[in-house]
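2024-03-11 09:14:02 DEBUG pipeline.ingest accepted 1 chain
2024-03-11 09:14:02 DEBUG pipeline.ingest length=107
2024-03-11 09:14:03 DEBUG pipeline.predict start
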Amino acid sequence: MVRWTLLHAALRAWVIQCWWRSMQAKMLEQRRRLALRLYTCQEWAVVKVQAQVRMWQARRRFLQVHQAACIIQSHWRWHASQTRGLIQGRYEVRASRLELDIEILMT
């Protein structure tokens, strides 16, 4: 009877230990998934900030080039009107490109 009682106690302890190990594994997996989710959120935030900075830099460079083109055009128009004739033209700035129509009239 004592051996039977000890055997059942040992089996019950073993079952409890197995259950506890499985619970620890589940908790570890939950912590791992949470850490992965937080890491992913941080990485996406970094990617978004980098994209915004790159877009800002590209826009700033585009505006610099656009301003330089306008200055060159105005000087060229002045020079052409003083030396050869009149330059008539128009330009439109759209979201992604600069369209340019220039008509040169020689007099």
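2024-03-11 09:14:41 DEBUG pipeline.report The first helix runs from residue 2 to 83.
2024-03-11 09:14:41 DEBUG pipeline.predict end
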